[in-house]
Write a structure and sequence with these properties.
8-stranded mixed beta sheet, elongated, binds adenosine-5'-triphosphate
Length: 322
């Protein structure tokens, strides 16, 4: 089976999938492996229910914190980003207007920031900056994402936003008329800047050399269907699919009749996964005897994700033995 090793050379990795399938576990394992290989890695959680801190057994927040050599962690928080964004915008306009207009403008900004979608927007902005490579401290950004729907929406956002900003620029241009130069208009400058940023974000997102999306699933009916939908949507968006991780595969042989029966059922789904997603590289990760905590377990998961195997991994892995 193909491993995910080649993905460690990318600059941006997204790990996505249905709730609870092992996105955080696999993102953390990939990030750890890349950092061991000497890349300077930032592991970013975009899921409001952050759990990277649990895995690394140390607090992580909205600013990058060192976790291990070459590895930093960051938990993006929409509310925090929105507050930061508001402060930045207020700072930018404070010299542009007089006291009265400024007071009114600030009120409008506060209002806009409390609108539904504002936090998601701020989250999206921060992700955009990271994808563009604005932080020179890191060579690889690994995104541990929220369950699929949310993430796919984020991935379509640069495209949608571009169209929106272009329309805004057009109406601003019409408003300014021919007498005034676009280049000296602060609104136009800000719109143009934003458009540039979005274009760059999208270019990096769609570049197969830069970005890959890894889909994590378990061998069950609903995750398979969700993966099929995600593959379609990613393809449509033009994002490269780096491979699939089939997590929590049960042991092939077991003295326990319950596990044997579960495994038989699982085998049907594993065959279906091979059949339906044959075009994509896949790795299997066995069900471990306990939850994934700490560096040791992550190391073994990373090894499974990155080692090429002749056939399906023997799930009678030593890890399964308590
Ligand atoms: N191969 C495995 N063997 C045993 N336990 C696992 C395995 N993979 C993940 N787990 C455990 O399953 C739970 C869910 O994993 P994880 O948090 O990585 O999933 P997730 O997709 O990020 O979930 P969420 O959608 O809630 O963010 C965790 O308790 C984790 O320790
Ligand atoms: Mg998670």
């Amino acid at each position: 089976m193909k491993s995910l090793a080649s993905l460690l050379d990318k600059r941006v990795l997204f790990l996505g999938g249905k709730g609870g399938v092992g996105k955080t576990t696999c993102a953390s394992a990939m990030a750890l492996a890349a950092s061991r290989a000497g890349r300077r890695v930032l592991l970013v959680s975009t899921d409001p229910a952050h759990s990277t801190a649990d895995i690394f057994e140390q607090p992580i927040g909205p600013e990058a914190v060192p976790l291990l050599p070459n590895l930093h962690g960051l938990e993006i928080d929409g509310a925090f980003e929105a507050r930061h964004y508001v402060a930045r915008v207020k700072d930018q306009i404070k010299d542009l207007f007089g006291h009265h207009i400024l007071k009114e403008a600030n009120k409008q900004i506060d209002l806009a920031a409390s609108m539904p979608g504002a936090e998601e927007m701020a989250l999206f902005d921060r992700i955009g900056a990271l994808v563009r490579g604005d932080d020179p401290r890191f060579d690889l950004i690994v995104f541990d994402t929220a369950p699929t729907g949310h993430t796919l929406r984020l991935i379509r956002m640069p495209e949608l936003m571009e169209a929106w900003i272009r329309a805004l620029s057009k109406s601003r241009h019409a408003m300014l008329g021919i007498e005034q130069d676009d280049k000296s208009d602060p609104v136009m400058i800000s719109l143009t800047d934003r458009l540039e940023g979005l274009r760059e974000f999208r270019a990096q997102l769609l570049s197969p050399r830069t970005t890959a999306f890894v889909l994590v699933l378990v061998a069950e009916r609903l995750p398979i269907e969700e993966t099929a939908r995600a593959i379609d949507q990613l393809k449509e968006a033009g994002v490269t699919i780096g491979g699939l991780v089939v997590n929590r595969v049960l042991p092939a042989t077991s003295p326990d009749p319950f596990l044997r029966s579960r495994h038989q059922q699982e085998q049907v789904y594993l065959d279906e996964i091979d059949r339906r997603f044959g075009a994509h590289g896949k790795v299997r990760v066995p069900q471990l005897p306990s939850d994934v905590h700490g560096v040791k377990t992550l190391e073994s998961i990373a090894e499974m994700l990155l080692t090429e195997t002749q056939k399906h991994r023997n799930t009678e892995n030593s890890l399964l033995k308590p």
